[in-house]
Design brief:
The structure is a single chain. This protein is mainly beta. Helices cover 3% and strands 47% of the residues.
Length: 275
């Protein structure tokens, strides 16, 4: 639960508290202070996911009207130093629900009047606080005369692919692998990554384990990457089968992810864009 209060001098404080099934407080007694600022108008809503992360959406009016998001860890500690700007727009934000995206991030929706009409908008913020870091996979076509071993994929760049100070420096390619085949690869020494792990030096053999929307594990095999250079559109050949092709099932789904830079920290991955 979240709430706000005005204090002396016009400052607005945003508070939060987690309760267990019996109603007992799980964070600091009396609530955890999540944000303090003079420009906050109200706490809009909050949502949480199975990992224990909570997102709080607040309405602000400085320097312009804007929606701000605060990611809060399972222990009640804000995960970023400052709130994340979800949207800036002149005028009020109306009816602003928010849901988790199933991957540690959130999706907010709202109505505003930036063009004179009340219009619906939405924005996703991923688990690292990035707005729409995913590329847009626009076309996947079969490569001719290779017995289904490759496809040609075309995508538009990630919004963070903006050299020289880009937040994305490469795109990684993945193919979906059946669970039994993934388990067999793991027994043969393939490294199994979890969400947020980096691909080790040398790349394959690597499997990425994700969880589908209905809670079922799914596996993706790393099959290559391409350096990002800021161009508007990219095209690459992506393997849909391990070599040799005749002894490997053809993947029904291929995936694309931008590898994201975070100072000197290991590369991270955003949500998987697949087709």
């Amino acid at each position: 639960m979240t709430w706000g209060e005005y204090v002396a001098g016009g400052t607005y404080r945003v508070w939060g508290q987690k309760l267990d099934g019996s109603g007992a407080e799980q964070w600091t007694a009396g609530g955890r202070l999540l944000h303090t600022a003079a420009e906050v108008r109200s706490v809009v809503c909050a949502t949480s996911d199975a990992s224990g992360r909570t997102w709080v959406l607040i309405d602000s009016n400085a320097p312009t009207d804007q929606l701000l998001a605060i990611p809060v860890g399972a222990d009640g500690t804000p995960a970023t130093g400052a709130p994340i700007t979800v949207c800036r727009s002149e005028g009020n934000f109306l009816y602003s629900p928010m849901v988790t995206d199933g991957a540690g991030g959130m999706i907010a929706a709202w109505l505003d009047e930036r063009h004179g009409l009340t219009t619906p908008y939405a924005q996703r913020v991923d688990r690292w606080g990035q707005l729409g870091a995913q590329p847009n996979l626009t076309q996947v076509i079969d490569a001719p005369d290779d017995q289904g071993g490759y496809v040609h994929a075309t995508w538009t760049k990630s919004p963070l692919d903006t050299p020289p100070s880009a937040g994305v420096n490469k795109y990684r390619f993945w193919r979906e692998v059946p669970t039994l085949a993934a388990q067999a690869r793991a027994l043969r020494g393939a490294r199994v990554l979890r969400e947020g792990d980096d691909v080790p030096e040398g790349g394959a053999p690597v499997l990425l384990q994700l969880t589908s929307a209905n809670g079922v594990p799914e596996y993706w095999e790393y099959v290559g990457e391409m350096l990002a250079d800021g161009r508007a559109t990219y095209t690459a050949s992506i393997a849909t089968a391990s070599m040799p092709v005749m002894n490997s099932p053809i993947a029904k789904t291929i995936g694309l992810r931008p590898a994201m830079k975070d100072g000197c920290a290991p590369l991270r991955t955003s949500a998987l864009c697949s087709a």
